Amino acid sequence: MAGNSQQVEAALTCKNLASWLSPGNLREHSVEIYIPRFKLEACYDLNLMLQGLGLIDVFSEAKADLLGMSPSHQLFLSTVVHKAHVDINEVGTEAAAATGVAVSNRSLEHHELFVADHPFLFCILHNPTGTVLFLGKLCCP
Asked: pTM here?
């Protein structure tokens, strides 16, 4: 989708992202990419979000039932935290425990150029399933 990152961000929904990344909307071609080295980390407390989705009892000392995980009647969830880490450098990409490196040969064929010297959105996909593993925004490259 052409346009600045604010327009793309405003239009970013699960449905639109799935459409943009669908095989019918993508074509394979050579692109020379220049992106800065960057490392992003984020940590989110999910307690309120999970409780908002109806997961209430598991956070209660009196009502939690985690007997499927442990024979102890004393267990309950106190905190649920999600932590994400993405590191992009000259060697490749590290996202949490997944690492990928792309190597290409040089050719004389025409290719497009993308220089990420401005804010940009990125996503890391699981190629076999097309599942979005990470979605992020780099504000100050």
From this structure: 0.60
